Amino acid sequence: MFINNQPAGTRLWPPFRFDISDAVKQGENKINIRTGNLIANKMWMKDDLGKLRTWGWRGTPDLRPYDAGLFGPVKLIFTEEK
Fold first, then answer.
1. Phi, psi of 7, deg, nearest 5
2. Global pTM?
3. b vs e for 10-39, b when ≥16 Cβ sit within 10 Å of the residue's Cβ?
């Protein structure tokens, strides 16, 4: 995650929460969330599904269990300092 082009943190597993209070500025801010994806998702798009069959699958494999990406909702939670 990046705030105003500055790294704000990385998470490989939940909870996907970031304290960005030091990165935000008054006015407009730019939030960029970069996600990674599994190699299986990339391979199924290729014309040669034979690569997947070498892993022991027959026919076109069901890749739904390998879904990855950004699943919402994305929330910004504002709290007041005490």
1. -60, 135
2. 0.59
3. eeeeeeeeeebeebeeeeeeeeeeeeeeee
